[in-house]
Design brief:
single chain; about 300 residues; alpha/beta; eight-stranded parallel beta barrel; two-stranded antiparallel ribbon; 9 helices; about 35% helix; binds phosphoenolpyruvate; binds manganese (II) ion
Length: about 300
């Protein structure tokens, strides 16, 4: 005879803090929570657009990028200071100087910024500067990192952008979000967590990854946290960014994360190869896309 389970567990019990079904306000609808990231609100009707370079190389580069993002109506700036690179020989990011450049560019433009934290030892350093921590796909299930980032973010009123892993289930994504939400909950705060669908690690149709707008919609149904799409990393091809970006928005995304590069930028900066050069939308393309979105 099968053993009786001790509790009457729901499938969403393991992510009880972030489950839509546990919040009356969000039951039976597709509303998401909304919250402030510094001076900017996420989770509103208007698509929340985060734009900036994949990685930061110079002070001038990120300043220019921030000014451009602001001018075209983006809500938030992105930029990599610490980069998770497949090859150990690739540029790994400038680290601390890039955080300083980001903070300066953010100050000039008034755009809050997100940047990735790769390991536990850097949570405080990144948190000293960033308005939102990015947990990358490769770290979605780095539970100690999730806890530390959650704790720091909750204590310092910062937000966390959790990117989906290489081939996760809905439950795995939401449990990862739950690790972070627990830390806000401990302090009696609501979780400032955004989930970002960035495609699965399977090359199809000439793309770097395979975007999953339908997965994004499933996430949105299962949690009240804002969910955004990353058409840059999920496709790896800038000509596909508008199409996939729109697909994400049609699948109920609250916003998009987009890599942008100056039209004048060559494949190297100071002799270093530009990270994700092909996938970054050129400024002119991004400007057109933002116009499309406003229609
Ligand atoms: C990024 O956004 O710069 C990045 C490295 O993304 P992912 O973790 O989704 O690969
Ligand atoms: Mn990138």
């Amino acid at each position: 005879m099968a053993k009786k389970r001790a509790t009457n567990k729901n499938d969403y019990d393991d992510y009880r803090l972030v489950a839509r079904k546990n919040k009356e306000e969000y039951c039976g609808n597709l509303k998401t929570s909304n919250f402030m990231i510094k001076n900017t609100k996420v989770g509103t009707e208007k698509p929340f657009i985060i734009a900036g370079p994949c990685a930061i190389y110079t002070r001038g580069q990120i300043r220019e990028s921030a000014r451009f993002a602001k001018e075209t109506g983006a809500d938030m700036l992105r930029g990599g200071a610490y980069k998770p690179r497949t090859s150990p020989y690739s540029f790994q990011g400038l680290g601390l100087p890039a955080l300083e450049y980001l903070a300066e560019a953010s100050e000039i433009t008034g755009l809050p910024f997100v940047t990735e934290v790769l390991d536990q030892g850097k949570v405080e350093e990144v948190g000293n500067y960033a308005d939102m921590f990015q947990i990358g796909a490769r770290n979605m299930q780095n539970f100690s990192l999730l806890r530390d980032v959650g704790q720091y973010a909750a204590e310092h009123d910062k937000a966390v952008l959790l990117k989906t892993g290489f081939l996760p289930t809905i439950k795995e994504v939401l449990c990862a979000a739950e690790y972070i939400a627990i830390e806000y909950h401990r302090l009696g705060r609501l979780p400032k967590v955004i989930i970002c669908e960035r495609g699965i690690n399977e090359q199809y149709d000439g793309m770097r990854n395979t975007p999953r707008p339908d997965f994004l919609l499933e996430l949105r149904k299962a949690t009240y946290l804002p969910v955004i799409g990353d058409p840059s990393h999920s496709t790896g091809r800038r000509e596909m960014v508008p199409k996939i970006g729109i697909r994400y928005l049609e699948a109920a995304a609250n916003g998009l994360l987009i890599d942008i590069i100056s039209d004048a930028q060559g494949p190297e900066i100071n002799g270093i190869e530009v990270c994700d050069y092909e996938q970054g939308m050129r400024y002119s393309e991004f400007r057109n896309f933002m116009k499309e979105l406003k229609k």
